[in-house]
Amino acid sequence: MRIAFIGAGSIFTPLGLYTIATSEVLRNADVYLVEIDGERRRFITALAEKIKKTFKADFTVTPLESVEGLEGYGVDYAVISVEKERYERWRLDFEIPHKYGIRQVLGENGGLGGLAHTLRVVPLVLEIARRIEDINRDARVFIYSNPEPRVTYAVLNYTGLKNVYGLCTGYIERKEMLAPLLKADEREISLIAAGLNHFTWIRELRVGGEDAYPRLDGALKRRPDFEPLSQLLYRTYGLFPSPDDNHIGEYLGFAWPLVPEEKKGLRWIERTRKEGEEVRRLLRLFLRGLVPRFAFNRFVKFPDVAMNVVEGLEGMEKLQEAINVPNRGYIDLPEGVIVEVPAEVSPKGVKPLRVELPGEALVLLRVQAEIQRLSAEAAAEGNVEKVIKAVLLDPVVHDAEAGLKAMAELLRVHLDALPRFDEGDVEKIEGWMRA
């Protein structure tokens, strides 16, 4: 099989390579590392060879400078995890709305920052997806790039690719956060959750196969400080949300005061940047032989999500606890919106499962489902009217004029990364209140 990592310098790729190297199904794959940054390409290529040697795998490694390079090889599976100037632009996505009094928790996947992020990333990924389509329109494509469900929606609706899945590690992170509360190893925890990416509801929570909700209830009584927003939602709607307060808080207008300072805004952005640097530091040590194999094994508790799905498609049938797909009655949201649900994966394909959710909880998701559609279509079409509709629909926007002014400024500062918009679109948003 031919597996391409596009944006191979991403933090997701090393785990994908490790999963390939330690999988009986994948260890003989042909791996293509597509990375435009020369330094990152050299590093991930050397790391791939080191992982291959360390774990005695037989996969091939081919570094490429662009997606066009895949034309001579072909591709069966493509993992897309691309971004431009992530942290510099993320800071602007948070700071500019905040200046206008809009209290968005992160500004990455929701709120006006999430909208600006969508407008930048969708055209970037669409360009890559169309080139994959030219090479093999039947390729299975996995998207890690945020805002992941909006990007997935755009690829499915603006290219001829049909086997497109959005992936996220949020459900794994929720297990890691709940493990100390439940006094369990995170690998013993299983969950059935559904909703929208970064905003799902846990229908079933188990430890070692047994219902863990009673255990969670007891733990939360002893820890009222643990994730106040998630606890409020749990008390209200009867299901614990996932993945955590700051990600869920991106979509709720009342979240700001409930999310601790260290988990929102610039503090969280800087923390995320430093965590990425620390992972890369450890990988450099591994490359130099200073981190032994057994330590690497301990460090990796869960397989890469994309390669876990590929294993299922290639013969190791399994339940993938969270995958993002177009809704076809899996939950009670509009058809075609990208929902996150569990799925059975086998050589027959990906079979998403239906999950029942409380009606009141679904109302919160319906608003975000519409924003998902509007923002993805706006990004793909360069449609400024849909940008405005998404702004005024967002629960985080407390004031119409402030929201439009903030969005206009976001467009202006990011224009060099917005190929479908120009200064005229900025002026249209600025003048919308007066029109």
In terms of topology, how is this protein built?
Blueprint: E1 2-6, H1 13-21, E2 30-34, H2 38-54, E3 60-64, E4 77-80, H3 86-99, H4 111-135, E5 140-143, H5 148-158, E6 164-166, H6 170-182, E7 189-196, E8 199-207, E9 210-211, H7 213-222, H8 228-237, E10 240-242, H9 245-248, H10 265-287, H11 293-299, H12 305-313, E11 318-326, E12 338-346, E13 349-352, H13 359-381, H14 384-393, H15 400-413, H16 423-430
Parallel strand pairs: 1-2, 1-4, 2-3, 4-5, 5-6
Antiparallel strand pairs: 7-8, 8-9, 8-10, 11-12, 12-13
Q: What can you see in these coordinates?
A:
This protein has 435 residues and is an alpha/beta fold. The protein has a single domain, classed as Alpha-Beta Complex (LDH C-terminal domain-like), CATH 3.90.1820.10. 48% of the residues lie in helices and 16% in strands. It is built from 16 helices and 13 strands. Strands 3-2-1-4-5-6 form a 6-stranded parallel β-sheet, with helices on both faces. Strands 7, 8, 9 and 10 form a 4-stranded antiparallel β-sheet that branches. A hairpin with a 2-residue loop joins strand 12 and strand 13. The termini are far apart. The model has no long low-confidence stretch (mean pLDDT 96).
